[in-house]
Specification:
The complex is a heterodimer of chains A (508) and B (177). In chain A, a hairpin with a 5-residue loop joins strand 12 and strand 13 (216-219). Chain A contains ten helices and 28 strands. Chain A has 508 residues and is of the alpha+beta class. Helix content of chain A is 24%, strand content 39%. Chain A has helices spanning 2-18, 104-125, 284-296, 300-308, 312-325, 410-417, 460-463, 468-476, 478-484, 486-502; strands at 20-27, 42-46, 51-60, 65-73, 79-88, 92-102, 136-140, 145-150, 162-167, 177-183, 188-201, 207-210, 216-219, 227-230, 233-234, 259-266, 273-281, 328-333, 339-345, 354-359, 367-374, 378-392, 395-397, 401-404, 407-408, 423-425, 430-436, 444-456. Chain B has 177 residues and is an alpha+beta fold. Chain B has helices at residues 3-19, 34-37, 97-110, 118-138, 150-153; strands at 45-50, 56-63, 67-71, 77-81, 85-91, 141-143. Chain B has a six-stranded antiparallel β-sheet. In chain B, a hairpin with a 3-residue loop joins strand 2 (56-63) and strand 3. In chain B, helix 1 (3-19) packs antiparallel against helix 3 (97-110) and helix 3 packs antiparallel against helix 4 (118-138). The termini of chain B are far apart. The chains are: A alpha+beta (508), B alpha+beta (177). The interface between A and B is large, with 69 and 62 residues.
Chain lengths: 508, 177
């Protein structure tokens, strides 16, 4: 790619200078004063068929003479002589001039090149914002196909292959068939072991949510917080519903691990309270991952191989970076007024928000919850309080049909149905997976269960930042690295989101 | 875009980038680029379709009242009656449109670096580039609006003032690489 860009730049310059259009003008002998004197050559066609090509010339109107320096050609266009010649107008058939001018086609292409190069440079300068996604899953919300889940986002190597369950909270479909579009939208290779649907029959107005242990629970209708206090004021309006409107702040300018708190107040007392949190990561963790890849550069493959050989140190080093940034700590106020940690939410992925249920200790009166997280690392879509009613058991449904770009893909279906096999997808691949539910989809709470891993494609721009010393520091001193990288991250933070979504390899 | 179609992108860019271009009828190398053509003493390349011969081409020598004169590649000066000419077209310099096509091709390839933006930038390159290269390829071509349109192309003949007296029946053809 870099070579193509260099060739493009060189060719653009050469073409701008060389690709021209020619404009010819002829004039009879008595119209000598109309001849374009800016033309580099004057061609004088004589009545006898010979031709003079002058590079410099002058006219004497009084004597009706044209004098010039150049070449005299015969009718056969062989050179008769070179030098200074004086010609009388009565022997001349006509004058001819030719002017080479820059082609307007070059101007048009130069404009396109300028804009295109600006986009290329922008993308190259924001390489940590390149779209990375793991498999994305689109399901209709009743109006459009909505990005509702991303599978196994943390599984960036075979050893990290993991199962992931995402709540299709906003899926709205009729009938007993559900259609899920699985897309590879980034420069990645996805190895998808399976994609199943977990369906839990709804009971009345009770919705079903999943906790961090993977258990499903029937709950009462969610209640909105009466207050949501953040450093910048009240955030209740932003977290009122799971609607895509999110609460988010920028990262700290000196330490990317610097934390902030959100204080929630639910002015009710419930029998078995539980907090509902719909959230996704910001692009900060993605930036850090790509920065780590950049520091590792050409040794990334070796590092991944070490990782695959079950080197415990490498595994721990990776985890230490994740732990330094942390997740969303959920705390409740104890009887002594202090804050006790209930759990930490670590839902990975910057694309699709997922809902988690966090059981809270039973307390009398209003429920106060504090959330603590790294500034700028999380986007919160929804907070609500609910009461757990009882355990729910999902029905696991395997794909009934799989289509690749509208055509039946039995092979893909077979791979997704066999846990020993896996479907491998490449940038731009898109599958439509069909599921047959036991009844009408509206009567079920739906979750998507996927397992697999993915491999990021190394970007040429990243290798340029290869720095073994900084790579070592990144893993050995993650807290220090998060401080050192803060100024660098702040330079690109404002454009990160738009650059990220723009850099998708293929869109759905 | 699938990986397979991603691999087809260069070929697609090349094909579309040249799709709107008009072929120059002159033998390759016979015409000079604009800068050199300013001092070229020869006439344009002409291609004629006549009712006698299917196609005839050579250096455009002159337009007379009832005939067109062409220097054939074997050096013979050939007069063709105007009334027998069905179609005529000249090319008078090398437009170098291939450079623009290559420019378009490389530009199209460079949009791979635009990520999702390629969906917009790739067609802009292909359409803009093919229009630009097509326009450049047609710039040195002139068609003759028969039967009376010869005055338009007369300035591109070797003898724009008309055939000189005592012109030999054969002339050395223009040498070219």
């Amino acid at each position: 790619m870099r070579n193509a860009l260099i060739y493009l730049a060189v060719l653009s310059l050469l073409a701008t200078a060389c690709v021209q259009r020619l404009h010819r003008t002829v004039a009879p002998p008595d119209a000598l004063n109309t001849v374009d004197r800016t033309a580099p050559f004057l061609k004088v066609h004589m009545d006898d068929g010979t031709l003079y090509v002058f590079s410099t010339w002058a006219s004497n109107d009084a004597e009706e003479l044209v004098t010039g320096s150049g070449t005299h050609y015969g009718v056969d266009r062989q050179v008769i002589g070179e030098g200074v010649f004086s010609l009388t107008l009565r022997d001349i058939a006509l004058f001819e001039t030719n002017l080479a001018r820059p082609s307007p086609s070059v101007a048009a292409l130069a404009v396109i090149t300028g804009i295109s190069a600006a986009v290329t440079v922008y993308c190259a300068m924001n390489t940590k914002a390149c779209f990375g996604s793991c498999p994305t899953f689109y399901v209709t919300d009743g109006e459009r196909e909505l990005l509702q889940a991303e599978g196994f986002s943390a599984s960036i190597a075979p050893r990290l292959e993991a199962r992931d369950v995402d709540h299709l909270y906003r899926a709205r479909t009729h009938g007993s068939n559900l259609q899920v579009h699985m897309v590879n939208e980034a420069y990645e290779t996805h190895v998808v072991r399976y994609v199943n649907l977990l369906a839990v029959p709804r009971a009345g107005d009770h919705r079903v949510f999943q906790d961090d242990s993977g258990n499903f629970w029937y709950t009462t209708p969610p209640l909105a917080p009466s207050s949501c206090q953040v450093p910048e004021g009240d955030c209740a309006s932003a977290v009122l519903a799971f609607d895509g409107q999110e609460r988010w702040t920028e990262a700290d300018s000196t330490d990317l691990a610097a934390r902030e708190t959100i204080d929630l107040l639910f002015d009710v007392g419930l029998e078995a309270p539980a907090l509902l949190v719909a959230s996704r990561q910001s692009l900060l963790p993605t930036y850090l991952l790509y920065q780590a890849f950049a520091y590792l550069g050409t040794s990334l493959g070796q590092w991944l191989a070490t990782f695959e050989r079950a080197d415990g140190a490498a595994f721990d080093a990776t985890r230490s970076v994740v732990e330094a940034l942390g997740g969303i700590d959920v705390l409740v106020q104890g009887s002594d007024g202090g804050w006790d940690t209930v759990t930490t939410i670590l839902e990975t992925g910057p694309l699709a928000a997922d809902v988690r249920l966090v059981p809270l200790p039973v307390s009398e009166g209003p429920v106060r919850v504090r959330l603590s997280m790294a500034k700028g690392a999380w986007r919160i879509d929804w907070f609500a309080l609910t009461s757990i009613q009882g355990r729910a058991e999902p029905v696991r449904i395997q794909p009934s049909d799989v289509f690749a770009r509208g055509r039946p893909a039995a092979d893909a279906r077979a791979k997704l149905s066999n846990a020993e096999d896996a479907l491998v997808t490449f940038p731009g691949d898109r599958y439509t997976i069909m599921y047959r539910l036991p009844g009408d989809a509206q009567d079920y709470e739906l979750f998507l269960e996927s397992q697999g891993y993915y491999l990021e494609w190394m970007r040429e721009e990243w290798v340029a930042e290869e720095d073994p010393a900084r790579a070592a520091a990144f893993f050995l001193d993650p807290a220090g690295s998060l401080r050192r990288l803060a100024p660098e991250f702040k330079k690109v933070e404002a454009q990160l989101d738009s650059a990220f979504w723009r850099s998708k390899y293929a869109g759905f | 875009m699938r990986a397979s179609s991603w691999r087809a992108t260069p070929a697609l860019a090349l094909v579309l980038g040249c799709a709107a271009c008009a072929a120059n009828p002159a033998p390759r190398g016979w015409l000079s680029p604009p800068a050199q053509s300013q001092a070229d003493p020869y006439g344009a390349w002409i291609v004629l379709s006549t009712s006698v011969d299917l196609s005839l081409s050579g250096e455009f020598l002159a337009v007379e009242d009832d005939s067109i004169f062409v220097l054939l590649t074997d050096g013979a000066v050939q007069g063709i009656p105007m009334h027998s000419i069905l179609q005529a077209r000249i090319a008078w310099y090398d437009s170098q449109w291939r450079e623009l096509s290559l420019w378009t091709f490389l530009g199209s390839i460079s949009t791979i670096s635009h990520g999702f933006g390629m969906i917009l930038s790739f067609p802009v390159w292909v359409i803009g580039g093919s229009v630009a290269a097509g326009g450049q390829s047609r710039a040195p071509l002139r068609g003759v609006d028969l039967p009376s349109g010869w005055d338009v192309v007369r300035p591109y003949a070797r003898f724009p003032g008309g055939l000189p007296p005592n012109l030999p029946p054969t002339l050395p053809p223009k040498s070219y690489r």
